[in-house]
């Protein structure tokens, strides 16, 4: 009986898969996002520099990555998309501060690329969800001019795994 328990235990350890993990030198889970990453416009005066992100424990079958940054607390009916970058090569497992690689769609500020936090004054604390998506294809085929909601739809349908860091911000 003991031999069976050991055999089951070793089999479980051997087959354990580690979940995709996302880390940042710039954003600490649940903490305020530094001013350097805040948007520069809409009444905000930050550096609008994207944060450092790195990921590990990539699932088998991953051929590319995507990164999104989303504010679910925005005073809209659909949140606010701050960043969507797709078709990041499988060989890339980190982005330095201010780096972009792959295709960046138009954010909700109206231009392609990263757009940092800038919640309305007096609107309280907002959460900013930075997510890395492991995808089973090299290129995510999206319609030309697709919205971030459409990109999010495809990411949710196709991803192998995802990992998230949530930072916060309040405009005073």
What coarse outline follows from CA principal-axis ratios?
globular
* Total strand segments: 10
What is the CA-CA span between the terminal residues? 64 Å
User: How much strand?
Assistant: 25-35%
CATH superfamily: PEBP-like
CATH topology: Phosphatidylethanolamine-binding Protein
What does this structure look like?
- By secondary structure, the chain is an alpha+beta fold.
- It has one domain: Phosphatidylethanolamine-binding Protein (Alpha-Beta Complex), CATH 3.90.280.
- Helices cover 14% and strands 30% of the residues.
- The chain contains two helices and ten strands; from the N terminus they run αβββββββββαβ.
- It has a five-stranded antiparallel sheet with strand order 8-6-5-9-10, covered by helices on one side.
- The longest helix is centred in the first third of the chain and has 13 residues.
- The protein starts with a helix and ends with a strand.
């Amino acid at each position: 009986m003991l031999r069976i328990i050991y055999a089951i235990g070793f089999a479980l350890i051997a087959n354990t898969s580690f979940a995709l993990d996302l880390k940042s030198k710039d954003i600490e889970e649940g903490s305020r996002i530094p001013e350097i990453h805040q948007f520069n416009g809409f009444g905000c005066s930050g550096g609008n520099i994207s944060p450092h992100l790195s990921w590990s424990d990539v699932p088998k079958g991953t051929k590319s990555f995507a990164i999104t940054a989303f504010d679910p607390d925005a005073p809209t009916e659909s949140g606010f998309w701050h960043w969507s970058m797709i078709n990041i090569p499988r060989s890339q497992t980190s982005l330095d501060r201010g780096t972009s690689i792959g295709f960046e769609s138009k954010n909700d500020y109206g231009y392609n690329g990263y757009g940092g936090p800038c919640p309305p004054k007096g609107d309280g604390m907002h959460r900013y969800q930075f997510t890395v998506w492991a995808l089973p294809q090299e290129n995510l085929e999206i319609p030309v001019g697709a919205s971030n909601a459409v990109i999010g739809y495809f990411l949710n349908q196709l991803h192998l795994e995802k990992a998230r860091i949530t930072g916060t911000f309040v405009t005073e």
